[in-house]
Design a protein that fits this description.
299 residues; alpha+beta; Jelly Rolls; AhpD-like; six-stranded antiparallel β-sheet; three-stranded antiparallel β-sheet; elongated
Length: 299
């Protein structure tokens, strides 16, 4: 009997020791797996581009229809997030700020951007717009064309990336666009005594016929060219085509330069002249090519 009791006690102690050993081994294996997982290198992640167009919906803090396609979320230690945003014609954001700033990369269409107290500016594919932290602004499509942009924004530790404010009024949205004239592309004009740039006709004929220059600048350039139903780029193409057809080299010369300022490339203007040869005649096209060569070689 004593031998049997001793045997039972020994087996119990062995089983208890075996269980402890198994638990320790399992814990060691789990720890090793955890350490191995922690040491595994990060891998590149690719989010494939979707062939489906974005779903255009009405979104709070926007006016008009907008499609938002998330591209990347902030992954520690990075705080950068991004999305592809498409605005329907007439759509725009509300006024807002970004605590850590924002970068916009325009990929398609034509749009407008404006900071509080500044002039509305046109943006086109390839343009990169940087908005500093805390600057109140809005951006969106023009009244007649879509805009697609990639928006890159850093988020604060609390996750906030944007501070929304009041919506952009129709009057603010329809305000004139600042001229995109640059020092390299703008035709040479005299500067007035006040230090401001004269309007187009004032610089060309204002000294000889001030009233005609005033009417032309106020009605044609101040009203018609500012109407949102056509972009300035499209108006330049229409005007250049009409002047080629009418064989008006003097007016064509200035409007070729203006078209360059309004975003029409030299290659597009040459192709326009080539195309017009079939509708306006070879002599008109050849005359237009001569004017274009003169304008482009002076740039």
């Amino acid at each position: 009997m004593k031998l049997f009791a001793a045997t039972v006690i020994s087996l119990s102690l062995f089983a208890s020791a075996f269980a402890r050993t198994n638990r320790a081994g399992a814990a060691a294996r789990t720890g090793a797996a955890t350490n191995t997982s922690a040491r595994e290198p990060q891998t590149i992640s690719i989010t494939r581009s979707s062939s489906q167009p974005p779903q255009m919906i009405e979104v709070e803090n926007f006016t008009g229809s907008v499609g938002v396609e998330p591209l990347l979320q902030a992954n520690e230690p990075s705080r950068l997030a991004g999305a592809r945003v498409t605005f329907a014609p007439g759509a725009r954001t509300a006024w807002h700020t970004h605590p850590l700033g924002q970068t916009l990369i325009v990929t398609a269409g034509v749009g407008w951007v404006q900071q509080q107290g500044g002039e509305k500016q046109e943006i086109r594919p390839g343009d990169v717009v940087w908005t500093p932290p805390g600057v109140k602004h809005w951006h969106g499509a023009t009244a007649t064309e879509r805009l697609t942009q990639i928006a890159l924004t850093e988020q604060q530790p609390d996750g906030r990336r944007v501070v929304w404010m009041e919506k952009v009024s129709d009057a603010q949205y329809r305000a004139p666009v600042r001229s995109q004239v640059t020092a390299s592309a703008a035709p040479t004009r005299a500067v007035s005594d006040t230090g401001t740039q004269p309007r187009p006709s004032q610089g060309a004929i204002g000294d000889f016929s001030p009233k005609l220059a005033e009417i032309t600048d106020n009605v044609l350039y101040g009203d018609v060219w500012e109407r949102p139903q056509l972009s300035k780029r499209d108006r330049s193409l229409v005007t250049v085509a009409a002047l080629i057809a009418l064989n008006r080299p003097d007016q064509l010369r200035s409007h070729l330069a203006r078209a360059r300022v309004n975003g029409v490339t030299q290659e597009e203007l040459i192709e326009t002249i080539t195309h017009m040869a079939f509708y306006a005649g070879w002599p008109n096209a050849v005359s237009a090519i001569g004017v274009a060569r003169e304008v482009f070689e002076k740039k």
